[in-house]
Amino acid sequence: METVCDEDTYVGHLNVGAAGSNNDLNVLNSSPLYHAIVAGMWPPRTISFTVNERTRTMPCYLADGIYPAYPFFATPYPRSDSRKKRTYNRLQEALRKDVERLYAILTSRFNVLMRPARFTTVEKATQGRASDNDHAQHHGAARQARARRSPPRGCRVHR
Amino acid sequence: MHAVMDPAASAEDDLDLVSFLAVSASLTLRREAELRTTMQRSLADRRTQRHRGSVPGRVANIERDFDAGVKHIMKDYFGWRGRPPLYGEEVFNHRFRVSRDVFLEMYDEVCRRPFWCQQVNATGRPQSHALQKLVGAFRVLAYGEPYDRADEYNRLSKSTISIAVDKLVNFIVDHYSPMYLRAPNESELRGILERNAARGMPGCIE
After folding, report:
1. Which domain does B93 fall in, by range?
2. What residues contact residue B120 under an 8 Å CB cut-off, 6+ apart?
3. ipTM of the predicted structure?
């Protein structure tokens, strides 16, 4: 299961259906999002941001150490032997925790995700629908929770 | 075949009638025998098939009293005969993992669709209600419970619940994922970047 979510655990991308025996790289290779990024279709390069007095246009996804060193992955330093690296790792992990939290929330909300999935048809195996469904339901709940929250924060767009 | 004999009829007529009856009886017998063999053959075929439908010698359907299931669900979660529901909003959210509004929104979408709507079977008996199937499917997703766990409450067989779960999952994916499971648009993306920059990771879209 590959997910991209924000700090409200609002899921923007989901890729499921990879067999459990696949390693992370094989899962990545089966991801439509990954292929869209490699092909240059996503993300839009019209938004720029400045880090350390350098303006960049390629935003990045936070990932853990197992992901390859691509410009669109911000992975933690494997050996954080300096203060700078440790600070970076701390901030990176703090934000990456959002998606780790998502897995706990989803499995506690929809217990069926804790059960082994049984694909009875090839179609189901390729679609991985149960998980898609739980995300969509999760969004129903997330949307409501967000609607109740007041005042709406910053420039958050309510969906 | 029940023939009414006329006492005033002549002997010739009697003879004609008897021979006619004999011929028709033999025809009927032969047709009956043919019918029986073809039926036996088709039943034998059907016994070897996977989806064989109703076949003599198999266990009959249990009369589950579907109405009782609907009544219990209505009493517990939606109110029955002017009385308020037994369980409040909090318990509802806990049991179904969605709020009552979201549940009812989904029910409205689903209740007229072919599998969900209440059907009448070949014997003229009404089948299970859409609400039952939806509740049963939600329980499976929320608690990860086996399909026949809530049989006594929902009054539905495990095969019905199994189909319901499948249909519900497909319905939700088709109906909600274009709206919710999508990439952020540009203004949303700006918002995400801004909030992550405030948290110390500029340029991160997670």
Report:
1. 66-180
2. B126, B127
3. 0.73
